[in-house]
Every structure is written in structure tokens, then in C-alpha cells.
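Duplicate of #3305? Posting structure anyway:
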């Protein structure tokens, strides 16, 4: 460790240190310091961490405990927000050191994964995070939306917030959408109360059963009115029609509706023409904190039975073991994992995370040099890995 980092301490802040973190992070992100206490309160004071140098707060972060769906299961994941270092201490490795302390602590606490949106990719790559899921934004031109007729028997109602039946439908939906978050109360409040927006929730029922919903905000901005849908789920064709018709009904005042999530969102199946734009301004970055735990927590295709060994390697001083070698045996959709003596395949931790989340295939990662084979015979293992982790593109609608 560099000499000027040796006296640093990583702690959960007391009240005074919290104020120091508030003053530092509000300046780093450019918001009023007076807004920091409410953010910390919502996040839970026990989830704040700061770095002290000579008893002064020089850096900090916020942990967001939650789950993330992969292989149909909610994998214990800790999100990270509010990463900042005071300007006079930047460029000395403080953020990197803080992230290594955070990784060590989070692995010990039982989290298998950690995910975040990075303002800079380089910082988080240097401590083992890899691009692992997409948050697409798409904009549907409401003027071009075909007139939609909601079939009789499909009932749309307006409610407040996110009632339990809506949360249950989201969770069922998220289970089959890799990368989606298993939301805690903080993330739900971001969906129904996004910053500076007021939302309305519309539920779609068919035969008394909830089949879809959308949470929208509508705000007059400088020159036009802005309609945004923060979370939309549609599990049937009628639910797609009902939700698109809600959007369309704003068309006399709002030119477009903006949605977030998968670039192939089910709602797009209801658009006859291509009167929408999709872009991907955000990548979620993920680090695997514990390879064995991540492997045993998820499910696998029932048809994929395998017995293979591989080693995952990490850079020095990033807070986690430099090598985890595992023997992975899968049957009936579940896995048993043991430490392995010898491994036929070796991969970087970023390659493992990208394979695990399904954003890249084993063959692709091998081509990029991030997976290496001990012998040509191990080529078959690449195919076996691809069968295990194959799935839809990992995506999510949330930002945190
Ligand atoms: C980004 C920030 C946290 C970095 O803190 P830091 O202590 O200077 O970072 P470190 O010295 O530990 O740098 C670690 C790595 O990140 C890279 N890095 C640091 N700041 C960077 C930046 N702004 N852009 C790109 N890369 C950056 C470093 O080059 C280094 O990479 P290397 O290991 O490959 O050489 C700090 O500049 C900051 O607080 N910025 C304002 C708030 C912010 O942007 N927070 C991030 C929100 S996700």
C-alpha cells in the first residue's frame, strides 16, 4: 500500500462524520449540503461508510442491500452509490482502497455480487467490476401510435404508489428477466417517487387478475410536456394494448413517452411501426464477490448437466482472494460447488461476471483472451459453460 494511504480508516460514520461526508459528497455531486441528511436517512445510517484520514472524512460510499435476479433466483447483491473522494485527496488511490475495503466487508457479510452505475468505468474496472447489464431508454412517438382499442373485460384503474399486488407481479416478472433487481423499500420509493416528479400508477386487470401495470409521471418542462414511465410490466397481449393506450391518451399534450429497461421490452411487441428510438446510455457494472455463493444461489437449465472445474483470478489488493478454483457439478437445474485442486479453464473475475450474467459467452470471452484453456481438450468446457449461462440479455429498468 502507498505510504500516504497507510493511516486511512474505513468506518461506519458517527453523527459528526456523517456531516463531514454530507459536506464532501454534496460538493462532489453538486447538490445542496442541506439535502444530504435526508438521503442518508433514506439509505439507512448503518449503510454508510467513510474513509478517515487524521480523523477527517476524505471519502465515502453508501451500500444498498438488495437482490439481483439471475437464473430465476434473487442473488444477494449489494449496490453502491454516493462514491466520492475529497478533491485534495484524489488521484492517490483512496477510492480504490475504499472499494477494496467495501468488497472484503460485503463478501464477509454474505453478498455474492455487487453492482453499481459508475460515473467512470476505469475506477470500477480497476477493482474488478465489469459491464454486466443494460438499462436502455426508449422513446415512443405518441403522435404515431396507432389508435388502440382496449378489449372488453380488460379493466384499467388508477391507484396510489405500488400496492402489494403490483410488487408481487413485478417480482414474478423480474425473476424471468436476468439483471432485474429484487427491490427493497428504497428502490420502490425511487419508482413511485422519482426526484422532482409526481407519479400515477395504472393497474390492468383481466378476469380479476393483475396482468400489467405502469407507473408514469407527467410534467410540463420549458417547451414541451414530458411523459415518463418508470416501471411497466405487461404479461398478456391485452395488458400491452391497455398500457400503450394509456400512453397514447397523453398524446394531445405530450409528444413522446420515455421508458427504461430492456431494449426488447414486451411493450414494443404492441407497436406496429418503428416509431420509437432506443438507446443505451447506462451500463450496470457488477463484481462477483463470492464465486461459490453466486454459483450455488442460482438455477440452471434442467437439460444442462455438467461436471467441470475452473479458476477465477483477481488482481492484487482489490479486497478479495486472488484465486478461487471451483468444481461445479449441475443436475436437475441446481449446482453443487466444491473447491477444486486443478482446473482446466482459467478466467479473470470480470470474465466470470460477464459469463455469469449472460452478457458475453464463454467462446467470446475466450476469443478476447479473458478465458484461457489449460489444454485443447478444455474447449468442450467452453460449450458446457455456454449452455449453463445462456439466457436473455441482462437488463434492468432501475437507476440507483
Ligand atoms: C471518481 C473518484 C471517486 C476517484 O477517486 P480517486 O481517489 O481519485 O481514485 P483513485 O486514485 O483510487 O483511482 C483509481 C483508478 O480510477 C481511475 N480514475 C480515478 N478518477 C477517475 C476519473 N475521474 N475518470 C477516469 N478514471 C478515473 C484512476 O486512473 C485509477 O485507475 P488505475 O488504477 O487504472 O490507474 C473521485 O475523482 C471523485 O470523487 N469524483 C467526483 C465524484 C464522482 O465522480 N464519483 C463517482 C461516482 S460513480
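Output from current build:
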Amino acid at each position: 500500500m502507498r505510504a500516504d494511504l497507510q493511516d486511512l480508516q474505513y468506518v461506519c460514520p458517527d453523527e459528526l462524520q456523517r456531516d463531514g461526508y454530507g459536506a464532501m459528497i454534496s460538493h462532489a455531486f453538486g447538490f445542496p449540503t442541506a439535502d444530504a441528511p435526508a438521503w442518508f436517512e433514506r439509505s439507512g445510517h448503518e449503510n454508510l461508510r467513510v474513509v478517515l484520514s487524521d480523523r477527517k472524512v476524505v471519502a465515502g460510499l453508501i451500500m444498498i442491500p438488495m437482490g439481483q435476479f439471475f437464473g430465476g433466483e434473487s442473488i444477494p447483491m449489494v449496490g453502491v452509490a454516493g462514491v466520492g473522494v475529497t478533491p485534495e485527496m484524489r488521484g492517490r488511490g483512496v477510492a480504490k482502497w475504499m472499494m477494496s475495503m467495501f468488497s472484503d466487508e460485503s463478501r464477509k457479510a454474505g453478498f455474492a455480487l455487487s453492482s453499481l452505475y459508475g460515473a467512470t468505468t476505469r475506477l470500477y474496472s480497476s477493482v474488478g467490476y465489469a459491464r454486466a447489464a443494460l438499462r436502455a431508454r426508449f422513446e415512443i412517438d405518441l403522435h404515431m401510435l396507432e389508435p388502440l382499442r382496449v378489449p372488453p373485460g380488460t379493466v384499467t384503474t388508477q391507484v396510489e404508489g405500488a400496492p402489494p399486488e403490483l410488487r408481487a407481479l413485478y417480482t414474478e416478472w423480474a425473476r424471468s428477466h436476468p439483471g432485474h433487481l429484487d427491490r427493497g423499500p428504497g428502490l420502490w420509493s425511487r419508482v413511485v417517487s422519482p426526484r422532482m416528479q409526481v407519479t400515477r400508477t395504472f393497474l390492468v386487470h383481466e378476469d380479476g387478475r393483475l396482468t400489467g401495470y405502469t407507473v408514469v409521471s407527467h410534467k410540463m418542462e420549458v417547451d414541451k410536456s414530458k411523459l415518463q414511465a418508470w416501471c411497466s410490466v405487461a404479461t398478456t397481449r391485452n395488458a400491452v394494448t391497455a398500457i400503450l393506450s394509456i400512453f397514447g391518451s397523453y398524446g394531445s399534450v405530450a409528444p413522446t413517452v420515455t421508458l427504461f429497461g430492456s431494449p426488447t421490452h414486451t411493450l414494443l411487441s404492441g407497436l406496429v411501426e418503428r416509431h420509437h428510438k432506443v438507446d443505451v446510455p447506462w451500463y450496470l457494472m457488477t463484481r462477483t464477490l463470492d464465486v461459490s455463493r453466486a454459483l450455488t444461489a442460482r438455477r440452471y437449465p434442467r437439460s444442462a448437466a455438467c461436471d467441470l472445474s475452473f479458476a477465477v483470478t483477481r488482481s492484487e489488493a482489490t479486497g478479495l482472494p486472488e484465486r478461487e478454483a471451483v468444481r461445479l457439478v449441475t443436475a436437475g437445474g441446481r449446482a453443487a460447488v466444491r473447491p477444486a485442486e486443478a482446473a482446466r479453464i482459467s478466467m479473470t473475475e470480470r470474465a466470470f461476471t460477464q459469463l455469469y450474467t449472460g452478457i458475453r459467452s464463454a467462446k467470446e470471452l475466450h476469443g478476447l483472451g479473458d478465458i484461457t484453456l489449460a489444454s485443447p481438450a478444455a474447449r468442450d468446457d467452453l460449450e458446457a459453460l455456454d449452455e449453463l449461462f445462456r439466457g436473455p440479455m441482462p437488463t434492468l429498468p432501475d437507476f440507483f
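Confirmed duplicate; merging threads. Residues 28, 83-85, 90-96, 118-120, 122-123, 126 surround coenzyme A (CB under 6 Å). The two ends are 31 Å apart (CA to CA).
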